[in-house]
Amino acid sequence: MALRGPSRSPRERRTLLWRRVIRAVLITAAGLLLVLTALRRWTELPAPDDEGRATGAGRLRSELTPSGVRVVVEGGWGEQHEGVWRLHLAGDPWTLGRAHGQLVAPWLGAFDRELARGRNGPERGALGRWWGDQRLRWQLRGLAQAVPAPQLLEMAALAAEIVETEPLPATPFQRLVSYHALPELALQRAPLGGEAWRCLAAAGWRAGTADGRVVVGYAIDPGAAQALQRRVVLVVRPRAALPFVALGWAGGTGVPVGVNARRVLVAGCPAQTDEGLQSGIPLLPLVRELLEHASSLGEALRLVQRQPRMGASSLLVADGKTGEVAVIESSPGRVVLRADARQLIGAVNHLQDEKFEGDASNDRVRRYTTSEARGRRLTELLRRGAGRFDAAFALRVLRDRAAVEGGALAPGHPRALDGLGFSSAVVVDLRELVLWTAQGPLLAGPFTAIDLKPIFGLPVMAGQLAHPLAADATLGAAELLRWRLAREELARAQELAQAGAWAAAAAMAERVEQLAPGLPQAQILAADALWAAGQVEAARRHYRALLASDPPFLADVERARSRLAED
After folding, report:
1. What is the pLDDT along the chain (567 residues), one digit of tens a residue?
2. 234 contact partners, CB below 8 Å, separation of at least 6
3. CB 419 within 8 A of CB 198
4. Domain map of the chain by residue range?
5. Is 86 helix (H, G, I), strand (E, B) or coil?
6. CB atoms near residue 76 (< 10 Å)
7. What is the DSSP string of 138-177?
8. Which CATH architecture describes the domain 480-565?
9. What DSSP letter does each residue of 193-257 carry, written as one string?
């Protein structure tokens, strides 16, 4: 006969069950905590060893110059001239980064805080922000191995100048490194009916120009982040690499476009392919790497082929010594050199070589954003400029606000090459070694001329003084002011819509329509907000108006047609 223990009362059984549940929960929580701790440590980007170098505020002095005031620190100096900030940096990577950080110290905190808050996308609430940060850390876990070591050391020195005034995710170094992947991350997360990091590049050389020179125009819109609107011209003399001049941002070491001392220009446009994002170097550090080490188009191509790449991109590379120009189109697993027999070439946000025609993600960018329409308009203008492509013509291309075949578009229309969103732009003549950059506002103001010859140690002959490029006479001050006001109100309307205040968003969007007639962004926002608010007939009126106004995004067209077809 089997012995049986004393029977338990119902209360004792419930107590035992709760103990087991609590024990299981605690064990599970401890396990999850260990896993998350291990994951966080595994995804930590360790800063390079500073080898005891000093950090913190350095000795800073100011000097009066004919153009204003120059701020000087060890390893560099900065000054504002004709509305453009220039930073001159020289030395080893740590000195470069430290001088950069000290010169932009007044802006660095705001730059870091804004990008840190915005890099996780639209997640709301503490849990959403935490999850976005963990996802981002996992996605970027290989950057420390992908970015060249000198650039990492420079970023570490710059990050050491960041003074944290509030809790932010990750270390300053990890945040700064992740900012250099913003083009790839922004394109990956762009909504179906929108686009991010709009880019435009155009070049003419040899027979494409009037006298055989090499001329490039380039513009980029990094998006809504105000931190990236504070652009600077970087003049960098690395200790063990080629000197270069680039257009960048206060607080960033990677750059989208630049020219080095061997007359090689590199301009990068982000793209997308089905390969997605891999463990590799992002676009901005890649452009910097090419500027520091490529002495020719061929060397630039070989460097790209050897580098594992994070995402897809178009790199317009021009060699002012040989007159060779081509676009290197690449994805993480493929590199293609695209040339043009007409000696006129351009790039937008989709890859154009036939080898990428079967790529669904690239096709999505082409059809669902404005990239195809902008590419067609760019091709028209390049044909028109055959044999006379010069700096003035390149600037007209960057400022073009017409539709395909020259049709009229409302100012700020996304289908235009210049949708009045470009904040950073350059025109470069590689034969004369002159770089022009926008003074602002946007591309409508004059372009300041920077003679690169004395920067690269070349003689300047008498009569070679570089002159600025004139302001845009086709866009009056009143029209530009009206557009800027409309854009501010449109941003506010989008905030209201994201908060679910549909009626207020619709009212604000209708105000924008009155302020800037024909602007499709306001039409679609008003229609969507009215639809969400239950005002179906009013929404349909806006959808009909949208379809009659050359809407820029295919997703908006599909949604408008679907809702108009509903009973």
Report:
1. 455 556 767 777 778 888 888 888 888 888 777 766 666 666 777 888 765 565 555 678 888 787 778 899 999 999 988 778 899 999 999 999 999 999 998 888 888 887 777 655 544 566 666 677 777 777 888 888 899 999 999 999 999 998 888 778 788 999 899 999 999 988 877 665 557 889 999 999 999 998 999 999 999 998 756 667 678 999 999 999 999 999 999 889 999 999 999 999 999 999 999 999 999 999 999 999 999 999 999 999 999 999 999 999 999 999 999 999 999 999 999 999 999 999 999 999 999 999 999 999 999 999 999 999 999 999 999 999 999 999 999 999 999 999 999 888 888 899 999 998 888 899 999 999 999 999 887 898 899 999 999 999 998 876 666 788 999 988 777 888 888 889 889 989 999 998 999 999 999 999 998 888 888 889 999 999 999 999 999 999 999 988 887 788 999 999 999 999 986
2. 86, 87, 89, 244, 245, 246, 247, 248, 255, 258
3. yes
4. 61-179, 182-475, 480-565
5. strand
6. 23
7. HHTTTHHHHS-HHHHHHHHHHHTT----S--SS-HHHHHH
8. Alpha Horseshoe (1.25)
9. T--SSEEEEEEEEGGGSSSS-EEEEEEEE--S-GGGGSEEEEEEEETTS--EEEEEETT-SS-SE
CATH fold group of domain 182-475:
Penicillin V Acylase; Chain A (3.60.60)
Integer Cα distance of 117 and 133 in angstroms? 10
Close Cβ partners of 421 (under 8 Å, ≥ 6 residues apart): 198, 221, 412, 442
Supply the DSSP symbol for 441: S
Tokens of 542: 């806006």
Residue 392's Cα: distance from chain center in Å? 25
